[in-house]
Amino acid sequence: MGKIRQKVNLFDFHTIRWRITLVILVVIIFHIATILWITRQVHINATQAALEKVKGDLQMGEALLDAHYPGDWMLENGKLCKGNVCMNNNNLIVDKIGRMTGNTCTVFQGDVRIATNIMRDGSRAIGTKVSKEVAQVVLGEGREYWGEAEVVGIKYQTAYKPIKDSAGKNIGIFYMGANKQYVDSLFRNCLWNVGATFYLNLLMIVSVVWVLTKSLVRPVRELVHSANRLARGDLDTKIVVKAQDEIGYIAKAIERMRKERKRSEEKLRSAHQQLLNIIEFLPDATFVIDQDRRVIAWNRAVEEMSGVGKEEIIGKGDYAYAKAFYNEARPILIDLFFFDYPEIRGKYNYIKNKEKTLFAEIFFPERGDEEGTYWWATASPLFNDEGKLVGAIESIRDITEQKVNEKRLEYLATHDSLTSIPNRFFLEETLKRAVARAKRGRKSALLLIDLDNFKMVNDTLGHDAGDRLLLSLTGILRNNLREEDFLARLGGDEFAVLLEGAAAEEAMVVAEKLRRVIDESELCLVMYRSCFNVSLSIGITLVEGDMPPSRILALADTALYKAKEGGRNRIAFLRNGEDETSHFSETNQMVTLIKGALKENRFVLYFQPVVSIEGGHIIHYEVLVRMKDTEGELIFPNRFIPVAERFGLMPQIDRWVVESSLKVLARSPDKKLFINLSGVSLGDEDLLQFIKQAVGENNIDPSRIGFEITETAAVKDLSRAENWISELRKIGCRFSLDDFGIGFSSFYYLKILPVDYIKIDGSFIRNVHQENTHSALVQAINTVAQTLSKKTVAEFVENEEDLKKLQELKVDYAQGYYLGRPEPEECGDAPGSKKPLKDH
């Protein structure tokens, strides 16, 4: 190719010419600054020298004065004298000092010149004054003054010294001054000499610049132009620079680089084509971008996955590759090689960086079937021979089927195949996390649950029936637990419940709820036309931070064993470190106490009033029972009644309560009592006959006697309970259905059971004025009861707000601590006495 002439731009400030010129300008500026500084220093030094001379001349003048006129300075007859000589208009001495020093000399009386060699307008400046500033320093403060000062309109380098009399009083001033014009003249002469020197130096510098520009800049410019052609990709034009110096050596090196680069470019194009051929047939969806993040490769697999063809995307940037997958322009995994995008990491389930390669998993809920689509992405950077990032490659694989299989295997490994709830392995892993949380102060409780007599179902109806029974039981347990509670099947008929954040008392409440629900219900298998009255035995322990899961399970298992050994259908609680035999001894002690109380008449009746909400008067009392131990301390029903029920002692206690209540009625003809009957006594024919006989023998009006039975106990054997209740209602006794609304309650039974009152369970009454759900349930129960001509009683009324809310809901009666606490018969003037509410 022919030689191309390059146009020279004189105002291209990036050229070497201008760089050299800039350096020269800096040198010139520095040179000028140096000259100015030297000149200034000369001026300062000349001024200082003049000042020093004036100081010395002042001392010499004082010596001449003392030599010519010995004696002290004094004021005599209003004139200034030196010894015996009057100094006023004595100009001989100041003229003499002036001739010897070449300076001006003046004697002041006070601040007025009385002798001076300073001439102004052809006469001496006698009678003029020193400046106020100088007078203040010299006369006022008694100090010497020297420096530049204006004397009769002309600037001098001056020295002033106070004249003192023999008493030390400042009476005048002795002055010596050098004319500043002399100093300025010296300075101007010096400045002309420096200027001439600067001019010669500048001429020499300009000559050097011209020579350097001529011999250096032109070949450099030619070299730059050749390098620019090479940079633009012109690998065919030969680089020629005629210079034989270092610039020529550089030109030859660049020419060799051009030849080497041309060969490399040819190899790179060949390798690039091979890479594109390999990428095209990769099984994974793969694409490549360059350093500007434009797509340069897009294989067949990625076309199929994204639905975007090569012709639509090759050469495009602005996150075109992201739009193909996400329908929006945004950074994705491959972009992390170019910038750190924090928002990218939130888009992926998993990102790992290994040896500069990124691995990531991403889930698309909007793609594929209902379970979504999982992708596994791999991205790697691309570098050139110099290690510069020139692009990146990303491959994507659909791993949805793999993830689904993994989840299925994980589910099978952690869940029971029959009930689909977690299994023992899942429980143990969950216990480990619960132990870790317990170390941080959040305790939990573990319940082990066993279905009593489950073997009988398997033996009589077969294992298929047993499986259906377990499925029904699982559903019941789930419905009576919170969403956050963990339910697992350990095998056979054994289940576990982990109560997160629960203390011992809460765990006991939940366990008792589960036991009661199963105990008071029937599990029916329709296809086998059978219903079973089954029960649960439950063992409880607490999860603590210093206990391994195996120890927690062992403790709960021991507690379960104790529950079953204690008679089944019961709950046992065991703490870590607690004597494992203590629960058996406690139960045996309670059985002994109950039997002793029956023999020794150590049961006590308590009475709690039931009040009309509208009228505020007491309609009857509920009879409650307490037991005294051998020391006379009261034991409440929640401790001895569960033991009495499990060991068959409850019918005897019920008989004692009925008999004692009838005696109270005989003593108090104005009282009406409702007696609680346990589930095991309801339907007892012997007890039925005993009640009929005792009422007749004591001549008691049967309408004064009522019985409270629980809803679940009545439903357990509905036909028998119905007959039993009907027999007593025939003689005039009344009945109340207690705890209505819990367990397996149904409004259907209200049409069958011949009861007079419905006692709404207290769990719906507490804070009914705040809980809208409870209010709605209470209103529904009350409406149904009124439709069936039955009265309603609200339990656990503990504040005025709840009572007012019940009045709004038109509930008939109320009972609770706000209206009257349970009291024995001997307290006050009547059992459970409390002043009736007259304002409600």
UniProtKB/TrEMBL annotation:
Stated name of the protein = Diguanylate cyclase
The organism's lineage? Bacteria, Bacillati, Bacillota, Clostridia, Eubacteriales
* Keyword vocabulary terms for this entry: ATP-binding, Cell membrane, Kinase, Membrane, Nucleotide-binding, Phosphoprotein, Transferase, Transmembrane, Transmembrane helix, Two-component regulatory system
Question: Membrane topology type, per the record?
Answer: Multi-pass membrane protein
Q: For the PAC domain, which residue ranges apply?
A: 358-411
The record's SMART domains line, in alphabetical order, gives: EAL (SM00052), GGDEF (SM00267), HAMP (SM00304), PAS (SM00091)
Which InterPro entries does the record match to this protein?
Biofilm_reg_signaling, EAL_dom, EAL_sf, GGDEF_dom, HAMP_dom, Nucleotide_cyclase, PAS, PAS-assoc_C
Name its species. Answer: Desulforamulus ruminis (strain ATCC 23193 / DSM 2154 / NCIMB 8452 / DL)
> Which PROSITE patterns does this UniProt record tie to the protein?
EAL, GGDEF, HAMP, PAC, PAS
Specify the GGDEF domain's residue ranges: 442-576
Q: Give the start-end ranges of region Disordered.
A: 820-840
